[in-house]
Amino acid sequence: MAERDDEEREFDIRWADGAEEKEPSARARMLAARWKENPPGPQPFRAEPERKGRGPRSPWASTALVFGIVAAVILLLGYANFQAPY
Fold this sequence. Notes:
mainly alpha, 86 residues, elongated
């Protein structure tokens, strides 16, 4: 008899999915309350994260740094070969 009661109380996912209203998650409720008072500003798609203490960096700065390091390594290897006795 107790086994039958457990089967009747078993959670039915179809019954839960059929609910007319669904409660938002705690995070969704928190953000909705926060944004009601202070809405967030527009953000570009895949915005670059803000860095503290430094200004914005140009995307070319990283490229120039990489090419500079490669050029320095090439010059260093060329100088080492120039100085090596044959």
